[in-house]
Amino acid sequence: MVDTYVDVVDGEKILVQLGDGGSPETFAHDCMINAERGFTRTASTITKSVPNCTDPSKPDKTTRVPDSTDSTIAGQGKVHSASVLAWLGRVGKITNVRVRQAGVWRVAGPYIVTSFAVTGTARNHATASIAMEQADEPTYTADTV
User: Fold this and answer.
1) Are 37 and 107 in contact (CB under 8 A)?
2) Which of 4, 8, 49, 86, by CA, is between 20 and 30 Å from 77?
């Protein structure tokens, strides 16, 4: 028998790419998001309680249905000084974003930049972090290189 292993995703292969707003839109990876980057998809639910008709003294049965879905993108890394002004201008605005693993999967859609922070200590390089929340439902597709 041949062993099978997980085809792992290397962290540096997950790219957060920003749209330029052009037509057609061009997406590029910002050099600042170079240490950590992540994509999270969540769903909220509505919880319902269903009574037991056979024996009302028994606890109700709990059921759930999906209520809404959401996604967020976050990233951080060493500050690429040429990116700082652009990121400051994006806070609170909708930006078309694409997150992808080249040749495997892609998520694309409008996101609101909800935070941008630059932090640093004396005699060390500064780091920056960003967070984005979906403005509308993104698309989920296979990625073609």
Assistant:
1) no
2) 8
Provide the terminal-to-terminal Cα distance of the chain, rounded to the nearest Å. Answer: 34
Phi/psi of residue 3, each to 5°?
-70, 145
Domains of the chain in sequence order:
11-42+70-142 (2.40.10)
- Amino acid of residue 91: V
Strands 139-142 and 94-101: unpaired
- Residue pLDDT, tens place only, 70-114: 999 999 999 888 889 989 999 999 999 999 998 899 999 999 999
Three-state secondary structure call for residue 58: coil
Where do runs of H (alpha helix) occur along 61-130? 84-90
Which helix H or strand E contains 55, and what residues bound it? none
